[in-house]
Amino acid sequence: MAWPAHAQVWQWSTSVPTVVSSETKDHPQAFLWIPDNCRYVRGVVVGQHNMLEEGIFEHPDFRNTMRELGFAIVWVTPMINQTFDWNSTATTKGADIEFRDMMNRLADLSGYSELAIAPVVPLGHSALASYPWNLRPGTLAVRWPSSRFTATPRKRS
After folding, report:
1. Is 45 exposed, middle or buried (0-12, 13-18, 19+ CB in 10 A)?
2. How many angstroms separate the CA atoms of 98 and 69, rounded?
3. How does pLDDT run across 21-32, given as a tens digit for each residue?
4. Helix and strand element counts for the chain (H, E)
5. H/E/C letters for each residue in 75-125?
6. pLDDT tens, 60-105?
7. Which of 7, 84, 108, 145 is the S-S candidate for 134 at Cβ 3.0 to 4.6 Å?
8. Could you tell me the pTM of the whole model?
């Protein structure tokens, strides 16, 4: 069953200047949504533009669940790094630098400084299935504390 068309708010956005998209020849844009009742972001779901991410992130049921958990949502379009490759190349600085820069910019812009250190739940599918796989905790132990990528959401009392 289809749900009614709806527009959703993304309160903040910033360019990701560490990346130039081969698709647009411009910097990707990162969009941030934080629940209106949120005083402290407990985690953040991050997805890159592929097919379904925007629809999932803007669905009222998904947003209500994120609100209950105190989780933010970041959607990036076009993608910053399809496979979340840690290594720099001729056209990328490496996913860790690109990701940190994006999250730090959103933290500064929004005033939610915890975004820079909040646990991350990556979302991706199909052509972007490698992104969450390569962002998994076991690959991050040397670069970032694994606690950043191990979130156990609980509902607030």
Report:
1. buried
2. 26
3. 888 999 999 999
4. 5, 5
5. EEECCCCCCCCCCCCCCCCCHHHHHHHHHHHHHHHHCCHHHHCCCEEEECC
6. 999 999 999 999 999 999 988 777 777 776 666 777 788 889 999 9
7. 84
8. 0.79
